[in-house]
Amino acid sequence: MKQIVILLTLFIFNACSLKESPPIKVYTLTVEGIAPVSHSVHRNKTIKVSFPQTLKEKISAKMNYSYSPSERGVYQNSQWSNNSAKLIQGNIIQCLEHSQIFRAVLPYESTAGEDYRLESSIFDFSHYVRGVASYAKVSIQLSLIDTYTGRLIKTKRFSYRENTKTTDAKGYVEATQRAMGRLSKDLVAWLR
């Protein structure tokens, strides 16, 4: 009988001590403030936006952070709504559609023909915390290629560092959104 009471007490104690983990917060990126351009030399051309390649991090929906040059991790209770490369590709497509630089902007998976291809390499897409300093870093190289000749027309690396208001995932997302907004405007100016 004494053993049953002890087991029952331990069971109740363990049941009361179990805590529910907080739900995972899911964040996405949006394109805002891109106005149609009045004139573009590419107005009658089509472009495909390739799936970005990453040079440092594994492509996933996880949000990366760093507390030192050699220490990296991912947030456990926060993540992107899709893998980061897909979000970046989607943002670039939306940005170019809103700008109306091209007649059509297509994802790379499309079977339609295109005049140009926009390839991208992600150098950095992370949250950095260094003591009291906290910032989001976005660094992406874009290359415009003539599909018919295979010739590289131009390439440029876009790099942004935006300070965060808080050192958590929410602050990181807000700063990343600002960096992607800057990238969108700079991309339109670069391509037109």
What would you say this structure looks like, in words?
The protein has helices spanning 2-17, 84-99, 169-191; strands spanning 25-27, 46-49, 53-54, 62-68, 71-80, 104-107, 116-130, 133-146, 152-163. With 192 residues, the chain is an alpha/beta fold. Strands 1, 2, 3, 4, 5, 6, 7, 8 and 9 form a nine-stranded mixed β-sheet that branches. Helix 2 crosses helix 3 (169-191).
Mind sketching the topology for me?
Blueprint: H1 2-17, E1 25-27, E2 46-49, E3 53-54, E4 62-68, E5 71-80, H2 84-99, E6 104-107, E7 116-130, E8 133-146, E9 152-163, H3 169-191
Parallel strand pairs: 1-5, 2-6, 2-7, 3-7, 4-7
Antiparallel strand pairs: 4-5, 7-8, 8-9
Strand content: 35-45%
* Contiguous helical run count: 3
Return the CATH architecture: 3-Layer(aba) Sandwich
Low-confidence stretches: none
Distance between the termini: 83 Å
Mean pLDDT: 88
Compressed to H and E, one letter per element, the order equals HEEEEEHEEEEH
Integer tally of domains: 1
Task: Provide the CATH top-level class.
Answer: Alpha Beta
What's the number of extended β-strand segments?
Answer: 9
Q: Which fold does the CATH topology refer to?
A: Rossmann fold
- The helix fraction, in percent, is 25-40%
The biggest beta sheet is recorded as: 9 strands, mixed
Query: Shape from CA axes?
Result: elongated
Strand-pairing-aware structural class? alpha/beta
Can you say what the CATH homologous superfamily is? Answer: ABC-type transport auxiliary lipoprotein component
- Rg over CA atoms, rounded to whole Å, is 22 Å
